[in-house]
Specification:
Four Helix Bundle (Hemerythrin (Met), subunit A); 3 domains; five-stranded antiparallel sheet; four-stranded parallel sheet; 48% helix
Length: 480
């Protein structure tokens, strides 16, 4: 089966054929780094990560570009998010950017998200953005008013082709306050005049100002991937106006198609409402990682198709933890058996079984990166492996290594939910040591008749999924 993707631009599923055989160019709208990333960001970037991982798994060479927005992303009030964050923390804007850019990458690393090949910053590409605005003015597609430059949507008939919106249907003030200086309410800023006191400012042919949000992605995508590239990823909530504006200004500037395939992910919600800092209903990735394994968070996200929204709750993450534990349950036994298994080649019947599961897995992923179906295949694999382990049959080292390799290839390399053996063993030793330390502290509290403290240790461990069992010969523990 060849890879099929749902192209939001054409609103149908199509065969994916890269521009250049064996190579894929991909751009994803990155974060605006004014605060800690939340698990809504995890939903988007884990989804994009699996797309990149699978393309590489299929033998394609991927150039993955994901920008960092550090200027120009305005709130509905007209305030720059970076400036607002800098005022909140009483730091310089670029100090704020450095802090939260580093925090973002640390969060992504912790979640096992592959680093982009290029992570350009908007503020480092001001000249490219000015060049685009100048060219569009020269072609009569943009105009300057009082030091600001706007794209004239009425001059570009294809404006709205991604979202399906028509210029004549766009309501005045639908997203940001309408400026009287615009020719049309839907015209969008390529360059904004910097009012007195606006810290982020650069010299331009139209005076001191700063770039609009939409133009940065156009400038950076084209600089590093060319005027036409294969995949544009991002979130469905940014189709309008951000992605729509990207397409219009890029194609008006280059005269060529922009992104060929638009792969856009659904949002993460809480009780059906999109998770957002502006709404205050968010949980940072750092906080989520305090309570759940990174692989469990990925499992939770991948249990839903990337184009669909997913609703967050504590119960859903606990279920993901349990599901991941069940999925990976044979691995510890496989590794234990491998140490003492007789040397020998892999059993032919087992190889056939693994090949069949691999084929089913790739069929699922070839169907627009259908991770829920891919996970179902891995659960079927776990069922079959458990049968083998419980059958009483002596399995050769080659057989066990082939089983381990299949989990690592499909669940690890592609989905990122299977830790490497070294990581898993190291984590297991660390967990065992920490829990035993807490058991000793609990025993000391009980000996001192501080039963409330002893109960608190037991209860806190229980909330983390660790169950203690008091026996005559001492206290043991297990994961629930």
């Amino acid at each position: 089966m060849t890879l099929q993707v749902y192209n939001t631009l054409t609103r149908r599923k199509v065969t994916f054929v890269p521009l250049q055989e064996g190579r894929v160019t991909m751009y994803v709208c990155g974060p605006t780094v004014y605060d800690h990333a939340h698990i809504g960001h995890a939903k988007l970037y884990v989804s994009m990560d699996v797309i990149v991982r699978y393309l590489r798994f299929k033998g394609l060479r991927v150039r993955y570009v994901q920008n960092i927005t550090d200027v120009g992303h305005l709130l509905d009030t007209g305030e720059d998010r970076i400036l607002k964050g800098a005022a909140r923390e009483r730091v310089e804007p670029m100090e704020l950017v450095e802090t939260y850019m580093r925090a973002y990458f640390a969060d992504m690393d912790a979640l096992g998200v592959t680093r982009p090949d290029i992570s350009p910053r908007a503020s480092a590409h001001i000249l490219e953005q000015i060049e685009i605005a100048q060219a569009l003015i020269a072609r009569g597609l943009a105009y300057e008013v009082n030091g600001s430059v706007y794209f004239d949507v009425t001059k570009w008939p294809e404006y709205g082709k991604l979202s399906g919106r028509k210029v004549e249907e766009l309501e005045e003030g639908a997203r940001v306050a309408v400026r009287d200086e615009k020719h049309h309410p839907a015209d969008f800023a390529l360059w904004k005049k910097a009012e007195p006191g606006h810290i982020l400012r650069w010299t331009s042919p139209w005076g001191v100002g700063f770039p609009g949000w939409h133009i940065e992605c156009a400038a950076m995508a084209i600089k590093y991937l060319g005027p036409t590239f294969d995949i544009h990823g991002g979130g469905l909530e940014n189709i309008f106006p951000h992605n729509e504006c990207e397409i219009a200004q890029s194609e008006a500037w280059t005269g060529k198609p922009f992104a060929r395939y638009w792969l856009l992910a659904g949002s993460l919600t809480i009780d059906g409402v999109k998770m957002s800092k502006s709404l205050g209903n968010f949980i940072t990735i750092q906080d989520a990682l305090q309570k759940h394994r990174a692989e469990a968070i990925r499992f939770f996200i991948l249990s839903s198709h990337y184009r669909n929204p997913v609703d967050y709750s504590a119960g859903a993450l606990e279920a993901a933890e349990a599901g991941l534990t069940r999925l990976l349950s044979p691995l510890a036994l496989v590794r234990e058996h491998t140490r003492n298994a007789p040397v020998g080649q892999a059993d032919a019947d087992v190889i056939d079984l693994l090949d069949n599961q691999r084929e089913r897995f790739t069929d699922a992923m070839d169907d627009d990166f259908n991770t829920p179906s891919a996970l179902a295949v891995l659960f079927d694999l776990t069922t079959e492996v458990n049968k083998l382990l419980n059958s009483g049959t002596t399995l050769t080292r080659g057989t066990l290594e082939a089983i381990e390799g299949t989990y690592q290839s499909l669940g690890g390399r592609v989905l990122g939910i299977v830790p490497t053996q070294v990581q898993q063993e190291a984590n297991g030793e660390l967990l065992d040591g920490l829990v035993k330390l807490l058991i000793e502290m609990r025993a000391e509290a009980r000996k001192a008749k501080d039963f409330s403290r002893a109960d608190e240790i037991r209860d806190r461990l229980a909330t983390l999924g660790v169950a203690l069992e008091d026996r005559v010969d001492g206290t043991t523990w297990r994961l629930r």
